[in-house]
From TrEMBL:
This is IS5 family transposase. InterPro entries: Tn903_transposase, Tnp_DDE_dom, Transposase_Tn903. It holds the Pfam family DDE_Tnp_1_5. Residues 23-130 form the Transposase DDE domain. It comes from Comamonas aquatica.
């Protein structure tokens, strides 16, 4: 028995439809010109850092957002800064690689006025696992590692308030 055909919706307003398709591909980036792009002197011995944590975090955010390699990230950051009309230098990939290991990211949150209603959820994450077809064919590997991720979310603002990873 054949299945019924799916209903087909005809586009009646092509101008609006084309504008909506164009809007899907638009990219808006806000950069504060007062942002501290260069690092301040630490006062310690040795050469101080050239770029601030905000500059490194900006580049790594682009990296994670678009799923790029570090060298591609530097190219994208250069073009974004050029389009914004800013003549700031961009950290090279080795600086990004080195600084991403010890970068302290400050996640802003709004303090709740009343009591906090915390929603807690847990899920398992598999590390070092191959595809399921390999496990079916050759049997499960002994090195499979699972971690449990616990997330606490504020019920009012839906902001992540706590994260804990356990074995």
């Amino acid at each position: 028995m054949s299945q019924p055909r799916k209903p087909r919706y005809r586009t009646s307003n092509w101008k609006q439809y084309n504008a909506s398709l164009k809007a899907r591909g638009s990219l808006t980036v806000w950069l504060d010109k007062g942002m501290c792009w260069f690092a301040t002197a630490s006062g310690k011995r040795g050469r101080s850092r050239k770029f601030s944590d905000a500059a490194i975090q900006f580049c790594l955010t682009l990296k994670n957002l678009f799923g790029l390699a570090l060298r591609q990230t530097t190219g994208l950051a250069e073009s974004v800064l050029h389009l914004c009309g800013l003549a700031w230098p961009v950290p090279d990939f080795s600086t990004l690689c080195r600084r991403q290991l010890d970068l302290n990211v400050q996640v802003p949150y709004t303090r709740s006025q009343a009591g906090l209603h915390l929603l807690v959820d847990s899920t398992g994450i598999k590390f070092l696992g191959e595809g399921e077809w390999k496990c079916k064919k050759h049997g499960p590997e002994r090195r499979r590692q699972w971690r449990k991720l616990h997330i606490g979310i504020d019920a009012q603002t839906l902001q992540v308030r706590a994260i804990c990873v356990t074995s």
